[in-house]
Amino acid sequence: MDFGISGKKAVVLASSRGLGAGIAEALAKEGAHVLLCGRTPDRLQANCKAINETTPGKADFVVADLSDGNFVETLLAAAEEKLGGIDILVNNCGGPTPGGVAEMSPEKLTAFFNSMVLPVITLTNRVVPKMKEKGWGRILTVASGGVVEPIPNLALSNTLRSALVGWNKTLSTEVAASGITANMLLPGRIHTDRIDELDDANATRSGKSLEEVRKASLASIPAGRLGRVEEFASVAAFLCSKQASYVTGGMIRCDGGATRTV
């Protein structure tokens, strides 16, 4: 299926590795011109090189940190210079440190709000007006299954990512008539470095071996395995496609059936 986004200009946040890198590649495979963003220039450069050598799309990158107060201006300037605009915005960010509710200090809440919520909303608000002028746009926000079934020992993530749920739904109703969709994509246990880090943290906290933690994790997934980045990225690419024009305001799960809510 041709997703109809060849030549579209896409920005993917936090795309130096993991889910963000996978989404950038998936969009480039559909012919999009993608701007990758992250804190690690070597990884970004390597990702762009691979995309430019193996896909019909094109990739550039900008080094920018979501926790930096100048992040939005830096990103927008790079998007204008390298892309000439933004048709597709993929909001993505790394997760906060593990821990329970009692560990959610005001300092931690503020710091992670400023890197996970504030820049996403601020950047999107800056991008939407030009999408309205064009009469077309795709906004996709990557969150977590924890927004519908809170994940133990990830209190900060459950709280802050959930703040984006109400925002996304409200946004979707305000921009739908302008040809813009706004959706959230909720990963389950997709095999990335982040999953390995969380497994290590859970093993340390529980006193169990890493092997025991991973075995229990797989047992909780009806599909019986971890997801692959490319599987998740393919769903993301569809939600950014021309064909997904009537899908908006939704929270789409990609979790192998792990989320137990209806």
From TrEMBL:
Concerning Gene3D superfamilies, the annotation shows: NAD(P)-binding Rossmann-like Domain (3.40.50.720)
A Pfam family assignment: adh_short_C2
Q: Where are the transmembrane segments?
A: none
Domain of life assignment = Bacteria
Q: Which InterPro entries match?
A: NAD(P)-bd_dom_sf, SDR, SDR_fam
Tell me which PANTHER family the record gives. 3-OXOACYL-(ACYL-CARRIER-PROTEIN) REDUCTASE, NADPH-DEPENDENT REDUCTASE BACG
Q: Which family does it belong to?
A: Belongs to the short-chain dehydrogenases/reductases (SDR) family.
What protein am I looking at? 3-oxoacyl-ACP reductase
